[in-house]
From TrEMBL:
Hydrolysis of 6-phosphogluconolactone to 6-phosphogluconate. This is 6-phosphogluconolactonase. Belongs to the glucosamine/galactosamine-6-phosphate isomerase family. 6-phosphogluconolactonase subfamily. GO terms for molecular function: 6-phosphogluconolactonase activity.
Length: 254
């Protein structure tokens, strides 16, 4: 059986959003059949805007969703840099009927306390006893920076070596704002499913590296290699142009 990630390249953002929505419904239904709750972690940046098709999908059961943040900037929740604030504006506020449970950070805490506090939220939600090494998210929805970062895991940063913590803080993020919390690499790599969304020419070079040589120095590459066939990429033609081993056809897979 193939252990390779799946890479989709869409001709339009509309096609990408529709396919992502179908994929998320499938992940949701698998999770609900297993434990009657859908635990999903969401990124900020360009990702939330790609989720708008969920709002018109009748199969989405928002009342069964628990939403976490794959990473979050330590700023007030209504600040323009807040990943929660962004998700609220583009998605949460538009949901009709019962809303999902959304686990926000406490931005009044110092970074290390903020990470500890968020980890405690995960421990409670996953009802994790001491024997549970890492939580298993049903789905983690990730973006990718042009530098190869994902969550708030940046290339060459010591956080990439974290082996035990579920959530970690960072105070020197190369991309502002500097203070953030993030799921750690082992938590991301333990998820049942991981979807990356990467669109536009600014993501092309990094995508070539992820599927070519030098992937192991990039956080996105480490997830792609670590989680293998649990990873699905939702990209556009501008991002996948010249990606090694990838035929340039709409909807084709690596
Ligand atoms: O700072 C962040 O950047 C990444 C990538 O953002 P994008 O705009 O290039 O998609 C994002 O996934 C992360 O959640 C965010 O905090």
């Amino acid at each position: 059986m193939s252990k390779q990630p799946t890479l989709h390249s869409f001709a339009s953002t509309e096609d990408l959003k529709a396919s992502l929505s179908t994929y998320i419904v499938s992940a949701q239904n698998t999770a609900l059949a297993k434990h009657n709750v859908f635990r999903v972690a969401v990124s900020g940046g360009s990702l939330p805007a790609m989720l708008s098709d969920l709002l018109k999908n009748p199969e989405i059961k928002w009342d069964k969703w628990e939403i976490f943040f794959a990473d979050e900037r330590i700023v007030p929740l209504d600040h323009e840099d807040s990943n929660y604030g962004l998700l609220k504006n583009v998605l949460l506020d538009k949901i009709e009927g019962t809303k999902p449970v959304v686990h926000t950070i406490n931005p009044d805490l110092e970074p290390s306390e903020c990470a500890e506090d968020y980890q405690d939220i995960l421990i409670k939600s996953f009802a994790a006893g001491d024997s549970v090494k890492f939580p298993v998210f049903d789905l983690i929805l990730l973006g990718m920076g042009p530098d190869g970062h994902t969550c708030s895991l940046f290339p060459g940063h010591e956080l990439l070596r974290e082996e035990y913590a579920w959530v970690a803080s960072i105070e020197d993020s190369p991309k502002p704002p500097p203070k953030r919390i993030t799921l750690t690499l082992p938590v991301v790599n333990h998820a049942s499913k991981i979807a990356f969304v990467g669109t536009g020419a600014s993501k092309n070079e990094v995508l070539k590296q992820v599927f070519g040589s030098g992937a192991e120095v990039l956080p996105v590459g480490l997830v792609n290699m670590g989680a293998g066939d649990r990873v699905t990429w939702f990209c556009d033609v501008a991002a996948t142009e010249g990606v090694p081993g990838f035929p340039q056809r709409k909807g084709s897979k690596a």
